[in-house]
Each structure stands twice: as structure tokens, then as C-alpha cells.
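Record format v2
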Amino acid sequence: MEQARDFLIDRLGECTYPSPMQGTGFIDDRAHILLHSDLDTIRTYLDAGEEPPRFEAAGPRERLYFNPARVACGIVTCGGLCPGINNVIRSIVLSLHHHYGVDEVYGFPYGFEGLEPRYGHRPVHLTPELVEHIHEMGGTILGSSRGHQEVGRMVDTLARLGMSVLFCIGGDGTQRGALAIDAEAKRRGLKLSVIGIPKTIDNDISFMQTTFGFETAVSEARLATSAAHAEALGARNGVGLVKLMGRESGFIAASTVLVDNQVNFCLIPEARFTLEGLLTALERRLAERNHAVIVVAEGAGQELLPATNECDASGNVKLGDIGVFLRGRICAHFKEIGMELNLKYIDPSYMIRSRQANPHDSAFCLLMGHNAVHAAMSGRTGMIVGYWNHEFTHVPIALAVRERKRIDTGGRVWSSVLAATGQGTEIV
Amino acid sequence: MEQARDFLIDRLGECTYPSPMQGTGFIDDRAHILLHSDLDTIRTYLDAGEEPPRFEAAGPRERLYFNPARVACGIVTCGGLCPGINNVIRSIVLSLHHHYGVDEVYGFPYGFEGLEPRYGHRPVHLTPELVEHIHEMGGTILGSSRGHQEVGRMVDTLARLGMSVLFCIGGDGTQRGALAIDAEAKRRGLKLSVIGIPKTIDNDISFMQTTFGFETAVSEARLATSAAHAEALGARNGVGLVKLMGRESGFIAASTVLVDNQVNFCLIPEARFTLEGLLTALERRLAERNHAVIVVAEGAGQELLPATNECDASGNVKLGDIGVFLRGRICAHFKEIGMELNLKYIDPSYMIRSRQANPHDSAFCLLMGHNAVHAAMSGRTGMIVGYWNHEFTHVPIALAVRERKRIDTGGRVWSSVLAATGQGTEIV
Amino acid sequence: MEQARDFLIDRLGECTYPSPMQGTGFIDDRAHILLHSDLDTIRTYLDAGEEPPRFEAAGPRERLYFNPARVACGIVTCGGLCPGINNVIRSIVLSLHHHYGVDEVYGFPYGFEGLEPRYGHRPVHLTPELVEHIHEMGGTILGSSRGHQEVGRMVDTLARLGMSVLFCIGGDGTQRGALAIDAEAKRRGLKLSVIGIPKTIDNDISFMQTTFGFETAVSEARLATSAAHAEALGARNGVGLVKLMGRESGFIAASTVLVDNQVNFCLIPEARFTLEGLLTALERRLAERNHAVIVVAEGAGQELLPATNECDASGNVKLGDIGVFLRGRICAHFKEIGMELNLKYIDPSYMIRSRQANPHDSAFCLLMGHNAVHAAMSGRTGMIVGYWNHEFTHVPIALAVRERKRIDTGGRVWSSVLAATGQGTEIV
Amino acid sequence: MEQARDFLIDRLGECTYPSPMQGTGFIDDRAHILLHSDLDTIRTYLDAGEEPPRFEAAGPRERLYFNPARVACGIVTCGGLCPGINNVIRSIVLSLHHHYGVDEVYGFPYGFEGLEPRYGHRPVHLTPELVEHIHEMGGTILGSSRGHQEVGRMVDTLARLGMSVLFCIGGDGTQRGALAIDAEAKRRGLKLSVIGIPKTIDNDISFMQTTFGFETAVSEARLATSAAHAEALGARNGVGLVKLMGRESGFIAASTVLVDNQVNFCLIPEARFTLEGLLTALERRLAERNHAVIVVAEGAGQELLPATNECDASGNVKLGDIGVFLRGRICAHFKEIGMELNLKYIDPSYMIRSRQANPHDSAFCLLMGHNAVHAAMSGRTGMIVGYWNHEFTHVPIALAVRERKRIDTGGRVWSSVLAATGQGTEIV
């Protein structure tokens, strides 16, 4: 973890160009943010003669690694949609233009495919005019794709086009690809910076207190739980069942429950539940209150389902569909016990992830983009822009992808969810 | 059709109570709105010595059939959810209270079930305080159910509770039920008014230029087509496929296309299309533009599907799922021809119909409720509140349910849709 | 009024070019919409041997006056902002392109100024790409200005640039200017069509049941009344006072009250009120309920204010500020009588008129634009696109500007407002 | 500052009642969050043998100070409106009910007035049913007032009604009042807990990374800047001038600029600017780009205005109106230099602060309320619920009100704003 602080010292000595930014202040290279905010933990490190883990602070540097007059930059967007991608693209382009005078910015279409010549995609010149209004649209103007391309050939393309910087907007798979490109570029002695902007609507990347698009996703998810509640109230023994995103981490489901406290059961991958427990609790709830709302994260309860043994192009194991499974089992159960049930099933995923960024995420994406540009210009590479304790940071990709961020079921978030739903321990 | 004008003359002579409304003016009993606005059609009637068809104008009457000091009213809400139901309930309660001083207003829970004693539902006393904020929520505070109950037993309940008026908020099935109640009450010589407030998210009730909730539904549906567009642009050969409501009439689909002109194909029940035509047009579109958005009304293309031979509790034939069918066929086709395809399927129905009314529908529902109350107090019965040429009207239920309103594929709405999508005749 | 039907017969004989539109059907030149929907009125005309007044139906014609291969069109936007202007511009451009193959479309910047050479504004070539997303923004991409320019010089510009059509998006002043251009062009024997698209956020143009932007304006205005209500409730004897648009017609104020029924007093230009009456009623209301919400249209109560004797650039008399006046008088009065008062004054006008069109207005603007193009291509001129009985129509400008549409205080809209506020006759 | 950690140790020994909460985990009384996240600062404290400053962690405790079976609680809401007040009230009521079985919860109307008998306000019994939907409305259902009441008489009321806990939702003036009540109660030996929930739309309370309602305010403020931008583009030399909240701290203005990057000048209380500088920069901007958007916080540039020498009921100095001042000076200046100017001035304050909480703030308020209840039940008093490093904390009121949180003009937030506007140093 100590590398979180020191990984980029190599190039500091080569930062020879003065930054053209004026009047906005620069960040000292020693500025950092501690990982822990608990004194006992920090003391333990210090007592053992170790450095407590910490992140380098992001922000503009006084001296640059690249000559702004000669920089060309590329951007790729990979994986599924997430609110804010266009905002990040726009922010990178505008920051390069306004802060560094860099106008050679290219978007490679359809993710890493755009770097693989055999697809024949042509890079798009991203001008300030072209990106001016793109943040008002969801999706990504560059298009996206899943999966990797051959690293050598991607680096060939970057070298051939004289790229100094590659910004990779994507999830952990994408960031692993970015790291491979970085390694290959270093092996060839290319002066390249590879900067990751972590994109995960599930908010499951380590060392990021929140990721862009997450707040928007939760806002939109609430429309689904609110619909589920109206449907549940609208019929005798009405049940609204909502499946939300969250392959391995239930942050969207948990946060949505905190936003809309009319949810009665929240099922996430991190917290086991049994079908029997859920059905019993649901029976009781309907007997007492005539309606119920259930939120289930897509990765919850996978052990109840037969394994699919399939992967998508990104290499993610294909999950069984817990929403459809639960719908079936709940309906079957109530039929069996002869109790009327009116279940409505809602899967709003595509409507959530394709939304434009809300105001919070708009500002967040702007700063993500600015800090990605600052990091790149100062020669950082193999890193993502992180967010910790309300500050933007630099996090080595190797560290960020080591493990996924998950909800601690013994911690405060989950405890708040339990307090909000009152779902008790009956369903476990 | 002439009855549209004259159906309620019976009770006019019995309107002996002066209205307590003050300062807002009254509508003359002769006021009406012509069905046609084409001079040639009207002349044809006149030349034949016939009355051109017209509707009685809705609005407050100077003399009432019921004594406001002694009136008790009931409300039922039936069928699926639709934005604005709570607004109508609220408007009826507040109009009875403020305009007529009537405070005996009861909501019967879960539709016609609420009138059938064996369910044991208890009527809810609807006070101005209780309904004050209900319009800020979607759904129906009374709950709903599908299907009919035995007419005699429902009238027994109404008689036992001394109800003078029953407001029935529901679709054409509900209005037929309302008409049966009205007939039975007349047979028994009960002084009862049965007033229908037509609720159909599909906007398919005759003699209503628009129904409440429709504008809200279209607004929400646009979120789905907008998502579909972002998803379609976000991947190579991306296709966004959206299924919208519209069992027999494609008004939501058609209007959504006019709102969001990024839709390329609009499929509705009224306009035949062939699978081959659609697939060919889609191939061409993807080859030229790399993405496409398709909107399909749930009742479209039923002849392509095997018949379900099932009915729901309302007696509606259960439709085959055209959305899932098209998703399957499109994917299979492009696999067969070896062309990459990234199809995202969105079915937003429950999220649409459970929304609260938008401002337009809020005002519309307010006026629907007021006019329903005015009609009831003046003794009209067996009628629904209609809307024609920007005026509220009285329409006999028998006339309103005679046939469904559908899109004329030779008319201006559909022509505008074709002009907006440019889908041409290729898909027919 | 008969001219409403017949004004364009002159050029029908010269419509020699077949329309390139396919598969969407054409409108017969005899199709029309009656002004009245009351049989007695129509009979009166017929009995007198007169034609009942009616409008020509809008829509695509089979034969065109202009050769689509040679047409060049201009667009100007004049007067204050209104939601939907960009939608109309976009719709015109896309309809010309997709329906008629016309790509020579130019926007003249800053209203009629753009046609006056001395300002040096350069016309903007409006391509489908340029307008693709403009409807997602409020305002007008062309810019606007108030007031007229010298007609001869404007026609010089149109002639010099070889314009066949001028689309004028603006209020009644603008349409008078359009008519003058049309007259001058006729005098010179130019083949020019001048088509008005009536823009008035006040919804006060005659023979239009609604104008574009109005629904959006009312939706936004509700945010202001809702804020006023929260503020009024939030303090002892809280009063929320909202000034809304409506120089001579109170449609926005009236409709907003129907949307948000928490308004207690609605003051419009058409309905006189006295300061004493208002203050007395307010005192009573606060004594009984501790809070009140007042909506006042900007043109209401002008007789209470000293005349400004000023005009704006459009020639409109500058109104006294009734909102600020009422705020002052109400505060002074309650101070005088020693009663606590917490008044919050809200003037949301600029925030309303600059919003992007809501879904309803998006569809409405699309159809306005299409019908404006169809009218132009078929040689109509000196007309605006109207809307009557849910149909688009052609209305001669001379007729449309003859008098302003106002709320009939003896009619149903105002009666509904009085019923919703319960403001009674006390304030008169 | 050390007291931030230790202030409540007094009563720990008296926490003798087991918490009835089950299955959600408890927070250890030693849990804390460090103020600093910079290792060097922490080391400096440690090297000097001092405790680095830290906050006690909020959350449910295993043992309670009050017997839940005998607790009665009061709530007051003071000062101006802010999005989320009703959410906090609701969360407190529901947490007391569901987590501790406490049903004796009373709302005192109109702030501290509600505790002063001479006003005659009667406490409102806040039941779960009554608060169920209040979070869907802006404002405060309890009403509010500014200013203090006599402390002894307020404590008399609390003692007379047997209150164990008083929750004070309000700004720093309110919290000072809360502290005085706490001191007086201690002096009398009353077993009372006074818990503050800091409410400041300006986000200017120390030791809170963000306050409730702030995100909602920024979201709404963007509607104003977006309107200003549309207006500015809509006229030649258009200027949109928006006044936002921020008496002494410019957080709303600064964050709004990060959300809506179309703002060209951001003026806040913390950063001086000169009128000459602003006018010159504006001239240049209009000459180059024809339009500009200015955001000014209400407390900015006060030194340019004559002092008002007035205070409001809360004791806040009444600010001069910088928005109206700038409007006047800018218009005068451009008139003087003979340059056309179209300035539109927007002051959306009441529309912002009266909005209901957005999803982010809904969840935030829920947790604020829960943690306030947990703190109260465990006997904490004289504290506010804080938020630091994404964790809820306990902060002594004395510490929290010591100084206001302000934007560091040498720090990262302001630097980002300057980078986003590009306003440079010209205006200083």
C-alpha cells in the first residue's frame, strides 16, 4: 500500500516544463491523504516504524512532464454505460484546451476496439465545440465495447499516432487493460501516460469513496422503488419487486433503500439470505400490512441459482437472473399456500445507466476530468484518479484492482439499511 | 348518437334544489359541443332533417337533483394504475366539500371488491384533510382490483349505506360494470347517480380527445426511448427496443415518437408490419447508421405470435409478449447473417403507469373531478365525463364503450409519426 | 372571418410541382375546421345564407407552389424567450430536409435585425447536424431582438439572397411585421411565402387553443407557487406572493392555479379587483388559516398603479410592476394594523421562459414546424399556423392579430379557477 | 478541540439501560474520526505529546442514558427554509418509534416561539402516520421563526412537559440557543439532552463536510444559471446575472459553477473583486463572445455597498443587495460607454430553499435523524451531529459555532472554480 504514495516518483525528476496554468495555485508533490482516519490504526503503523498508507493528492502541478505544445491525447470509453461518461470526456477536452493549450485530443471509437486497426474505426478529433453540449446526453459519444484487444497492437496504434497520453474510462477490467498498455509502453521506452478514470455504476472500486454516476443511478433507482411501492399499494397483497444493479456489491440497492424508506427487504450479494426466510417474512408482512417492496441487487442470492458457467466479453461470469428467479418462487409459493398475491416486477437497469449525469455527478465528473489531465501532464501513469475523504487522489491501478469494494455487513451502511427496512434477521 | 345529447332529460324536471355554489356561474342545460367540426358533415345531417351528433356540456348546474345536505357519495377505483387517479379522488372529495358542502364521501377499497360484502373491506371516510396531499403520490390510495362482482350484491351495499352517488374511476370494463349498477338501481327505483371517470392509460376511449394520465405516460415513456437511444449509440450496431403500453391502440407509442424524434420504427396495433420487412429495414439502417431505436406497442403484431387463449380477471384477452418475441427474432436473425448486434430491451410499463400526474394532468384531473361532481349533483347517471374540442362533456356510457378509439392509419397522427420516423413502407 | 377559409386560393392554381413526400398521405385543400362547435351558432349563419367561419386544415399538400429543388428558406426568431423555439427551428429544418429535400435553410440572427444589413449579422446555414440536439436547450440558438426594421430593406435582403420562404417565429408584433414583409413582397411581385409561427408564452393569440411553450411555462410556474406555499406555511402569517407572466391575458396564472390548488387568490388582467377587497380577504384568511398564497399576472391591477408612459422596443406599453406594488401595500397594511406578516415575493419569469420544452411542447413544436413547412411549400403566405379543436390550421395573420385572446370571466376557465381558489367575490 | 472527542464522558457512567435495537450492531464509544488526514499534521501533535483532534463517531450505542419506556422528545425548527427539514423531522420520529419504541414525540410550532408560552402555540403530537409523507414536501411542517426566546421560560416549558430530549434543527444562531438551553437545564439538574441538527443552506458550518439541503440547493441553483445562460445567448450582448445564497461563504455559488460550467464570473464573499475589474472583464467578454453569465453570492462585494446597519430577527447583519447593485452599475456602465447590453437578473433564492430534498439529501437527512436520535438516547447533549470523512460524528456545539466554514481561496475548491470559469485575475 505504501506504493499508493510513492509510485510515481520515477518521473518527477523529468518534469521540466513549466505549467501554463495561471492564478489557480498548484499542488505540492508531497500532499497526500491518509487512508485511515482512526488514530489507533495510524499509531500502530507508526509504532512499528511503518508509514501509514496514504494517497498522493491529485491536482495541477507546477512543472510538467510533457511539453504542452507537443502533446497529443487519446480517450477510450469501455464497458457498460454509466451516467457521466460524456461529462468526463468533455472535462478532459476542455481542461486540455483551456488549462494547457492542448488541442490534439482524439476519441477512439468503441473502447479498446478503437485502438485495434482491424476494426477500421477512425479516431474522432475532439474539439471544444464538439464536446460543448455532450454532457447533456447520457451514454458515450465515443461508443463502447467490452473485452480486450491485443496489447502490442494497441500500443502500435498509440505509437504510430504519436499519442503521449491515453485516458481510459472504464471498470476494473478496463483498468487492467490500461495497466498492460502502460507496461508495454514502458517496455518499449515510450513516453506515454496511461490514466484511468474508474467507471463503475456499482460503486465497487476500492479506495474510491464514491464513483461518478453513482448518485445519479441511485436517484433514478428511486423512481423504480417508488413505482414498486405504488404498485404494491394498488392491489391486495401487492408486492413490488425491483432488481437493481450490483454484481458483487450492493451499494446501489443499499443507498436506494436509504433514499426511499418504503422498501421492506433489501437483498445484496454481501449478505446471505434464505429463500425460506424471505418467503416467511413476506407472508408475515402481507398478513400485517397487505403490501411489500423488495429490492434485490443482481448479484444477490447467486448460490440459490444454478451456475450459468458463462462469461460476457469482459470476462465477467454471467450471473443467474435473481429477479426472475425470485418472481417465480414467490408467485409459486403464494399459489401453493392459497394466498392472493399481486406481484409486479421491475428491472430498470438500462433506464438508469443511460441517464445523463445529475448536478452532483456533473460537478464530480468535471473535477475527475480536470484531475486526470493534471495527472497526465505531470507524467503520472498506471494510475486512476481516486476520491478519498472528499479529496481527489492518485491510486496505482495495481492497487485499485486488487480487490473490489464491498459493503461491510458489520458496518454502518448496512446497519442503516437494516434500521431503515426493519427486515430483521428473519430472512437469513 | 343523438342520445349523447338527450339521455338525461328524464331527471331534469326533478332538479328542485338550488345549487349552493356562488359566484362562479352555471352551465345552461342546452349547452353542447358538436361531435364534428366539418361543415359538410353537419350539413348532411341537417339536409336529412337529422340532428348532428353532439354532447351535453359539463359544468355546474343551477338546480340540483340531490339535496346537498343529505347526499352520501362513494368512489371506487378499478383496473390497472394510471397517473392521476389520486388527483381525481381528491378533486371529487374537495369539490363535494367546498362546492356543495357534502362531507359524506367514502372510498370503497380495491375496486368493485369494496362493494361486495364477502371481502370484508371497510369503506374509508374521505375527508379533505385525508386527501390533501394524495395527488403527490402515484397509484391509488383506495387500491384497485380487476373484474366484476355480482351486480345485485353491489347495489345492496350501496342501498344499505344510503349512497346517492357512485363515482367509478376505471376503463371500459369498469364502465360497463357501472352501467349495470345504474340499470339495477333504476330497476329498483333507487335514487342513485352512477358517474364514470374514464381511466385508460392507452387513451383509447371514444369521444375523449385525451384521457387523464396520458400526457404523463408519454412524458415518462420518453425516458425509456431516450435510454434506448443512448444504449443504441453506445455500442456498435446498437439497437434499443422499447415496449410501451397500448393493447389495441398505439397512442402512447405514436405520441412518444412525436416527443422523441430519435425513434426509427414505431409499431402499433393499428398498422400491420411484417417481420421480414422489419428485419430488412433494420439491416439497412444499421449498415447506414450503426444504431436504431424501435418502439413497439404491446398489442402490435399479435398475428405474428401464437394466441395465448387466456384472459385476465378483467376479461381482457392476454396478449402474447411482442417485445420479448421481437427481441428473440431480431437477435436470431443477426446471428444468422453474421452481423454483430447489441440489442437492449426496455419494458418501462410499471414505471410509467405508477407515476404521479404531471402538471398538465393535475389540472385535467381537477376539472374531471369537478365536472363529475357537478354531473352527479344534477342527477345525471349512466354517463362518463368526456372531453371534446377542449371542453368537458357528458357521454352516455353505452355510447362510450361501443367501440374503442384507435389511430386512423390514414389520418394526421399516423402520418406525422411516419414523417418523424421516416420508417417508410418497407416494413409493411 | 370568411377569409380564414379562402385567403390562399390565389396561388392554388400555381401549385404545379408534385410533392416528394411519400407514404404519409396528403390533406385535401377543402379540409377545414369550424370555428364554432355550437349548433345554434352554426345554424344562425346557415339560416342567414352565410358560411359559418372555419379554418383551412394544415398539412402536407400533394402539389407544391415551390420547386423543392430550388427553394431557399430563412428563419427569424423575435421577441422574448419561450420554451420550444429551438424545437420549432429544428422541426422546420428537419422537415425541409427529410420531407422536401431542401437543404438551403438559413437562420437570420437576432430577429428582424438579421435582415437589416447595417447590423452586419451573417445568416447561419442550418443543417440537420447543427440542429440535431438544439431542442434539448432552452432559448433560441438564433438569438432574438425586439422591434421592427425597415420593411423595404428587409425585403431587399430576402430578394438578394434568393429566399423563397421566410418563417417568422414571434408574437403579434412580429406577425404584423411578417405581414408587412409579405405585402411588400407581393407589391414587388416576388415569389415569397411568409409563414408565421405564433410564439406567445401568454397564450394570448386568437384562434389558437394553445400556443407552444405554454404547457411548459405552467409546469415551471407551479414550482414557484409550490415554493410560495412552502414559504407561507413555514412562518406565522406567511404569505407567498408570485408574479407570473400575462400582460393582457391571465392564462398562465389561471392554469397554474388549476395545477396547484394551494393558491388562494388569483389576480388576472381580465378580472378587476380592489386593493381594499384583497387586503380584507387576506386578513380574514390569515386569521383563519395562518397562511396564504397569491398569484398575480403581471398585467393585473394596472389601474391601481401610476401609468409608466413608456414602451419597450416592441412597442408594448411598459407595465407598472404590480408584484412589487402589492408586496409594498400588503406589508404596509399589516404593519399598520399591527398584525405580524411574513411575505415572500417570487418572480420566476426568466426561469420559466428560458426552460427547454417539456415533452408535450416538444411534440407540439414538432408538428407546428412540420405544418409551417407544408404551408410554405404549398404557397400559403401571410398566415400563421393555428391550432383549433385539436387540429392544426391556417389562419390569416390579419385575422389572428385583430384582437388578443383573453380569459372570459363569465366562462368555464375562470369559473374553474374561482372554484379552485374559493376566492369569492370579496376582493372585487 | 480535544473536547471534540471527550465532551460527553460525564454521562457514560450513567448509561444503564440496554438498547432495544437488535441485529444492527452498535458503535463503540471509543470510535472516532480524525480531523486531519495529513500525516505531517498528525505527527506534529503526536511529537508534541498532544492528541490529534478528532470527533466521536455517531451511531447507536449498546447502553442508553434514557429509559426508552419513559422518554418524551421535542423538536423545533428555526431560521430560514432549507430542503430536507421535513425529512429530518420524519427520520427522528420514525427512528424513535421503530428503533426505541418511543412514541412521545412533539413538534413545537414556529421555532423557539413554540417553547414560549405567551405565543400560545400548542405542541403537535408527531406520530409515524402523521410524518409518513412529509418528506415529499419542501418547507417545515412545524413552521419556523427567527430569533431567540428567554432561555429560562423555554426550559420551564420543557420541564413542565417532562421532555427528556430537545432536537434543534437550525443554523448557528439556533445552536447557540440550544447550548443556552442545555446550560440552563444542567444548572437546574434536569436530565435533558439537547441535540442540534445543523441546518444551513450555505453549507458554512465548521466540521461538516456538507450539510443537508446543500446538494438540493445546488441542483436547483443550476436551473437559474441555465436560465441565465439561455437569456444571455438569446440577445445581443446578453448578460445573465444570478444572485445565489451565501452570506459569508460562497459554497453554493462555487458548487453551482462546477455543475454548470457556462458561468463566466463567480463572485463570493471570500474573494475580493473590484467593480472596475469586473466591468472591464465583462466588456472584453462581450466584445469577444457576445454573452456572459455572472453568479454572485449574496454576501459578495459587501464593501462596495453602503452598510445597512440593520439586523434581522436572528441577529444577522442585513446585507446590502449586491445583485441589485451590480445590475444597476453594469447597466449604467454600458449605457455610459454606448455599448448595447441586455441584462437579465435572476434571484431564485426562495425557489431554491423551499424545494423538497433530492434523493441524495433524502438519504443524508435520514441518517442525520437516526444519528441524532442515537446520540440523544445515549445521553449526549450540547452537541450537533456532524459529518466528516464520509462518517457521521458528534461535535460539541461550542466548537461548531466558534467560526464559520469558508472557502479557502488558496485551496482546491476555489482553484477548480477559477479553472472552470477562466475568470482570471482581471477582476480582482
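The first strand of chain B starts at residue 17 and ends at 18.
Chain B has two domains: 3-211+355-400, 215-353+409-421.
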